[in-house]
Amino acid sequence: MKKAFTLIELIFAIVIIGVLASFAIPKFSGLSDNAKISAELSTAASVQVALDSCHGEWIINEGSFTCGGSIESSDLNEYGYPKDGELGSSDSTPLDAILKNASAIAWERDSTNSNEYRGPASNSATGTSKCKTGKPCKGKYWDYNSTSGTFTLTE
Q1: Taking the C-alpha atoms of 35, 39, 40 and 41 in order, what is their torsion angle to the nearest 10 degrees?
Q2: With CB atoms 3.0 to 4.6 Å apart as the test, which of 71, 83, 110, 120 could cross-link to 67 if both were Cys?
Q3: Rounded to a whole number, what is the largest CA-CA distance in the chain?
Q4: Helices then strands (H, E): number in the chain?
Q5: Among 98, 76, 73, residue whose Cα is nearest residue 88
Q6: 55: domain range?
Q7: Do the domain assignments include residue 131?
Q8: Are residues 134 and 147 in contact, defined by beta-carbon separation less than 8 angstroms?
Q9: pLDDT at res. 16
Q10: Torsion angle of alpha carbons 74, 48, 137, 145, nearest 10°?
Q11: 10-64: per-residue pLDDT in tens?
């Protein structure tokens, strides 16, 4: 009786594993990019929820209230969204009242419209560069308009 594998059986097993790996590796190669895109979309949704929460409190409350722990009702514009100067401590960190790390993301006020803010859709060093329509990646930006309360991806 035979107690060991022959060389042909071992080579055959290695070939089968190689063929299976050739199908599996492409399936897993895009997972990190998909995870980054999902995280960025989730963060954008959270920002929109925070802005809508301020707007909702503004609609419901007639008196004073605090939105997000740091934005007073007097800091909201006539549409119920945070005023231009109240979203952050300066033009270089305009959304730090909404985003904890806005200063690290390089948000800026739009030079042509002071009601709009722009921030990168993907981290320039670690973000995804595989651009898909409607998905954040390097080179795209999130735009916030404080008049309408919209937070959108700029293609």
Answers
A1: 100
A2: 71
A3: 90
A4: 3, 6
A5: 98
A6: 31-154
A7: yes
A8: no
A9: 95
A10: -40
A11: 999 999 999 998 888 877 777 888 888 888 888 788 878 888 888 888 888 766 7
Q: Would 48 be classed as within a structural domain?
A: yes
Q: Is residue 7 part of a domain?
A: no
Closest Cα to residue 89, out of 99, 74, 80, 79? 99
Helix, strand, or coil (residue 118): strand
- How far apart (Å, rounded) are the C-alpha atoms in residues 148 and 118? 15
Task: Tell me if residue 81 falls in helix, strand or coil.
Answer: coil
CA distance 150 to 155: 15
Query: And the tokens for 64?
Result: 């004073």
Q: Is residue 16 part of a domain?
A: no
Nearest residue to 142 (alpha-carbon basis) of 126, 154, 130: 154
Identify the residue with better confidence: 75 or 136.
Answer: 136
Query: Which candidate, 146, 147, 130, 149, places its Cα nearest to that of 40?
Result: 130
If one counts the domains in the chain, the total is 1
